[in-house]
Specification:
- Strand 3 (about 110) and strand 4 (about 115-120) form a beta hairpin.
- The protein is α+β, with helices and mostly antiparallel strands.
- The strands form four sheets. Strands 1-12-2-6-5 form a five-stranded mixed beta sheet, with helices on one face.
- The chain has six helices and twelve strands.
- It has helices at about 55-60, 65-75, 80-100, 155-165, 165-175, 180-200; strands spanning about 30, 40-45, 110, 115-120, 125-130, 135-140, 145-150, 210, 220-225, 235-240, 245-255, 260-265.
Amino acid sequence: MQEGGEVLTHSEGAGGGAAPDAARGATWRGAPERPRADGAEVHVWRVTPLTRPADEVAALRALLSEDEAARADRFRFERHRGHFIVARAALRRILGRYLGSPGRLLRFGYNEYGKPSLAHPTLRFNLSHAGEVALLAVTSGREVGVDVEAIRDDVEGEKLAEHFFSPGEVETLMSLPEAARARAFFDCWTRKEAFIKALGSGLSHPLDAFDVSLAPGEPAALLRTRADSREAARWTLRELEPGEGYAAAVAVEGGGWELRCWEFG
């Protein structure tokens, strides 16, 4: 799911991007009150549940900027509007911890594809939310992208794969037992989304222009990029486990970093 909109419903070294999936079975631990962004670490924060009482949502809305509140109001359903508000408020509160600043004072800039940034020389972050879960990836001096999706039976994954995935990915998907295809589809989708979000180009970057791993038990990896064969070596993918019924991945520029999974209360 792209930050701010649901794609399917309405967001250790390099060398090929493969790395042990340290987040498999990882415990989402309590986070420090004043975390420090360091290029040697990538922090992924989990925010759940996104459905909160109306009075809490109203209080969190006060943290948002005028343009964020306007974006919230464009959601047709109250549930989706509330989820957006909770996720954006969490983004502000978490980044405020890193910067030692009240979250409501943060001012975001956006590139031409809508990826947010701060006027900070090194801090990098990316947000995604789906269902009852939001994930926020934070690091320093490296581009980063994260994506989470709720695994759903009503998504025609095989048809979507034929339209969006590379021929090699489609071939791998269709070679799997039918019972394994839904999970493999969402693993592939989140890895591809995380990568294009890290690039900052969103869905303007063709999803069939690169290949990721998707077979069950295979570590998350960016296998190849067709525009520039050297590009895959610049990125590392990691699978995340945000909870039962969800698939997620984080894409990070370069290697040599450690993953920390934190719960935001």
